[in-house]
Amino acid sequence: MSNFSKVVLKKGKEESILRFHPWVFSGAIDRIEGSVEEGDVVTVHASDDRFLGIGHSSIGSIAVRIFSFKDIVPDLSFWCEKMQSAFNLRQRIGLTSRKGTNVFRLVHGEGDGMPGLIVDFYNGTAVFQAHTVGMWLMRDLIAESMKVVLGDLLTAVYDKSAKTLPFKASIESVDGYLLGGLTTREVMEDGNRFIVDWEEGQKTGFFVDQRENRKLLSEYAFGKDVLNMFCYTGGFSFSAMQGGANLVHSVDSSAKAIELTNQNVELNFPGDTRHEAFAADAFDFMKDINNKYDLIILDPPAFAKHRSALNQALQGYKKLNARAIQQIRPGGVLFTFSCSQVVTRTNFREAVFSAAAISKRNVRILHQLSQPGDHPISIYHPEGEYLKGLVLYVE
Fold it and tell me: Which DSSP state fits 69?
């Protein structure tokens, strides 16, 4: 038995853990035996003292995030086994050898049995992002496990956790390299080249989760006039250009994002006049775009990060989609997304349905989209499904 402080649950509260759900909520806890601080490793037990799992303690409604349902010691050997399992999945789905692609998500939190940890791989650099204090405290051990498993594929590990650790945590995290250093920022996805700024950019530097959806978009783009809202660094924009779009307009409120978009477009399509980028507020830009575009992408940042903001978020999705559906050219195609975890697939579809009803146009669903295989969803943890998308045909 591991020698860690014990979290003992109230009678009957062990059922979800027995079904391998990795979260222990604070209301389910009867008592804690031993001294526990945020980020400590603890064991979880039923009221009759049966061992249930081992994980990291947290402050908040989710009091423990379980990373093993076996009684183990979380040493280098353990994390190497976890990392190998994650890497094997990416190998099996072909991402580690995909032609023209050297970008993928290596670790996706609960989906890979490592709650609170995200790792994205960018052409040799692994960007480590801890969302819990426990994972951050184990950063050096986890970085070493990546080196063991990836070998020569890995040239650097960059810790970008300063802005993702819980704001109540009394930790002064500074972003920086855990292994190696900067060699290149240029990466490839399906033959497209782009620059990733993991030090200053959003998330880990790029939205890896839209890879398959960008590929699908390129199949719809030929001869189309395309509007890419919330373009960030232009992923959907150069996928549209790769697919033969007639023109592509990229819009983002961030001037720096627009600068990166232009840089990335120039990398792939030097001197191409089909593309133009605008630093503008999305709702303002979409006030009067009537009949200008026949392919529109709406990929906004999370409108709701907490359940308390759900209703407001759904109104935002409805307003945004209504503007697009009302103004897209007849026969147009709309790619629309939500990356808010608290917005369910049903929530999002109902918001888009309401937007379509407001427009009074005939709207049909062509595709229902989700996150790709390197963002796996544990069947025991449905909360891991965060990316929802619809491709709509608007008459």
Answer: S
Taking alpha carbons only, the member of 163, 94, 178 closest to residue 130 is 163
Cα distances from 193 to residues 205, 236, 240, 258, 390, in angstroms, run 14, 13, 14, 16, 26
| pTM (2 d.p.) | 0.93
pLDDT at 306: 72
Residues of the chain predicted below pLDDT 70: 1-2, 168-169, 304-305
Name the architecture of domain 76-188. Answer: 2-Layer Sandwich (3.30)
The model's pLDDT over 273-288, given as tens digits with 9 standing for 90+, comes to: 999 999 999 989 999 8
CB 41 within 8 A of CB 54: yes
Please state, in angstroms and rounded to a whole number, the distance separating the CA atoms of residues 165 and 250: 31
- Tell me how far apart the alpha carbons of residues 62 and 69 are, in angstroms, rounded to a whole number: 17
Q: Give the separation between CA 6 and CA 4, rounded to whole angstroms.
A: 6
Tokens of 125: 């650099």
Please give the Cα distance from 82 to 157 (Å, whole number): 17
Burial 232-271 (b: 16+ CB within 10 A, else e): bbbbbbbbbbbbebebbbbbbbbeebbebbbebbeebbee
d(CA 26, CA 176): 33
Show the CA angle centred on residue 20, arms to residues 369 and 46, nearest 5°.
Answer: 150
CATH for the stretch 207-394: 3.40.50.150
Q: What ranges in the chain are assigned the alpha helix state H?
A: 15-18, 76-92, 133-137, 139-150, 211-220, 235-242, 255-268, 282-285, 310-327, 345-359
Residue 231 CA to residue 255 CA, distance in Å, equals 11
Largest separation between any pair of C-alpha atoms in the chain? 70
Domain covering 5-68, topology: 2.30.130
Give the residue among 361, 359, 384, 388 at the shortest CA–CA distance from 300: 388
Query: What residue ranges do the domains of the chain occupy?
Result: 5-68, 76-188, 207-394
Residue 278 token pair: 């605008």
